[in-house]
Amino acid sequence: MFLSRLKIFVLVIVSITVVFFTTSQACADMFGFFNKQEFYLSAPVKGQLLDNEQPVANTKVMRSLTYGDEYVDETTTDEHGYFTFTEKTIKTGKPSNMFDNDSLVQHIYLENGTPEGIVLWYTLVSIHEKSDTLKELLAHLKCDISKEPQTYDIPIKEDTSHAFAIYTSCKL
Fold first, then answer.
1. Which of 153, 151, 121 has its CA nearest to residue 42?
2. pLDDT for 101 beyond 90
3. Distance (Å, rounded) from C-alpha 30 to C-alpha 66?
4. Cα 95–100–104 angle (5° rounding)?
5. How many Å apart are CA 100 and CA 126, to the nearest integer?
6. Which helix (DSSP H) or strand (DSSP E) does residue 65 occupy?
7. Domain segments of the chain as ranges
8. Which residues lie across from 154 on neighbouring strands?
9. Please, what CATH class does the domain formed by 37-168 belong to?
């Protein structure tokens, strides 16, 4: 009799343990808690910094990429005003999290003591993670700080029913 109760008790404990671990892993996967994957934040950036069409040398250019957390890089223009940033990817569980609705903010700027700095490029990316449209635009930036930034609605080649709103002092 005691042995029967012990077997039932062990069977119940094992069953509860199996159910708990399989369902919590399923929930974790479904909600994206442990499922980290590569997420593409930005294509490589190649640009030239100008002031009244003249190259601006030896100037620090910042790139801030915000997707939940903020990722900041900096580079310095060469003697002809050229600057580059490499492609940026991170490991994150956010894309597989069904509760995540964060968009990606791309911001390229010069520091001037204000939170936004002197804006060279600013856009909010909510769709098209590896957009050829953004890749092409970011590959040939000519940014003239003597010009006021403007907002452009650039059709997304991958989905022409949508557009990127880009606030920039760069020629597009």
1. 121
2. no
3. 24
4. 70
5. 12
6. strand 60-67
7. 1-31, 37-168
8. 164
9. mainly beta
